[in-house]
Amino acid sequence: MQVLEQKINEIKFTWPLGFYSDAVHSGLKADKKDLGWLYSEVPAKAAGVYTTNQFQAAPIKLTKQTINHAHMLQAMIINSANANSCTGQQGELDAQTMQQLAAQQLHLEPAMVGVASTGIIGQLLPMTKVTAGISMLKLANSADIISAIQTTDQHEKKISVQVSLNDGQSIIITGFAKGSGMIHPNMATMLGFVTTDADIDGIDLQQLLSGQVDDTFNQITVDGDTSTNDMVIALANGKSNVQVVPETAEFTIFAQAFKQVLSTLAKGIASDGEGATKLVEVNVTSAESHLAAQQVAKAIVGSNLVKAAIFGADANWGRIMGAIGQTDAKIDPTNVMIMINGVAIVKQSQGIEYDHFAMQQALEQSFITIDVDVHAGTSSGQAWGCDLTYNYVKINAAYHS
């Protein structure tokens, strides 16, 4: 693992070879950029993972259909402030219009353009503003699209890594995302985009994205609500001329770097939960299976009682035990161990003595780790979430149509 890490270096945010982006203020938001595109100068292999919510927004259905047709895209047109969800046939026509307008501006076939939207559900897009906004977009080297897709986000989620391969060649993987509330995947109110100049087959890219989403984006939770618009799209345009093929050393390095990008974005969303003051990481060990470990970890970060206790800097381990016990994962009920920020508070499923003042100070930190050993096997898993604060209620009480 150490050798792999030496070949993966986080760098200043930069687009991989052949990728361009721009964003404008089209009037969907009062005074911030709200519409942008991502463009590859050559067709890119494309992969996507989408919300499991039964009410899938028009952009989701259109982009899924577009990618599934040929596993290729050359551009994404993206807006915030309006989800174009639960908008009926007109919403579907509006998504198609966005696709067609962007394609026309970029001199592409519509089938080479994906569409993504995020924001208020149930309102029709003001297409006059959208149309004018698309006409203003340029082929720039801008990173403004990262802030343009935000809704209640407080900070940007972005990362670029340079990957050095065994033959001295290198590739870049760059990702950005938005998400703050309605976060409880399988996919939640979030948009994620990953770009790379690696040359990888579209089916291989889809398998890699689908598999790694399960251990990253699908292991975060903020509030237990899943949205109608979520998607993660990966684009690989091959401009580096570096081929990445499964069952090779190069693919192993690439996959590790790809997961680092997804993990960083996922944790960025968890830490930016609406009203959140703390990022919470749960590590579960000695589980019967990886799936069981993931289930237990996510149950803990998803418990409102645990989240509220962490906000209050209260090491109420009984709430953690309750969350573990609600799952159907195999555990040893007589031999669970819990540590918070490295301090043991439960052994053999019973509370033990610890320094309460030191623990309270530890829980005042912005990053909290909860380690749980369930003594049922040899597998491990992780999940990320945040605390539950007064501001979460305030934000969502004021977020209306």
UniProtKB/TrEMBL annotation:
Residues annotated as the enzyme's active site: 189 (nucleophile)
Instruction: List the residue(s) that the UniProt entry marks as the site Involved in the stabilization of negative charge on the oxyanion by the formation of the oxyanion hole.
Output: 118-119
Q: Which pathway does the record list? A: Amino-acid biosynthesis; L-arginine biosynthesis; L-ornithine and N-acetyl-L-glutamate from L-glutamate and N(2)-acetyl-L-ornithine (cyclic): step 1/1; Amino-acid biosynthesis; L-arginine biosynthesis; N(2)-acetyl-L-ornithine from L-glutamate: step 1/4
Give the location in the cell. Cytoplasm
Please report a single Pfam family linked to this protein. ArgJ
GO MF, one term, reads: L-glutamate N-acetyltransferase activity
Any GO BP annotation: L-arginine biosynthetic process
Which keywords annotate this record? Acyltransferase, Amino-acid biosynthesis, Arginine biosynthesis, Autocatalytic cleavage, Cytoplasm, Multifunctional enzyme, Transferase
Q: Does the record's keyword annotation contain Transferase?
A: yes
Q: Spell out the residues of the site Cleavage.
A: 188-189
Q: Which domain of life is it from?
A: Bacteria
Q: Name one GO cellular component term.
A: cytoplasm
Listed CDD domains: OAT
HAMAP family documented for this protein: ArgJ (MF_01106)
**Quaternary structure (record):** Heterotetramer of two alpha and two beta chains.
Q: Which family does it belong to?
A: Belongs to the ArgJ family.
Q: What does this protein do?
A: Catalyzes two activities which are involved in the cyclic version of arginine biosynthesis: the synthesis of N-acetylglutamate from glutamate and acetyl-CoA as the acetyl donor, and of ornithine by transacetylation between N(2)-acetylornithine and glutamate.
Tell me what this protein is called: Arginine biosynthesis bifunctional protein ArgJ
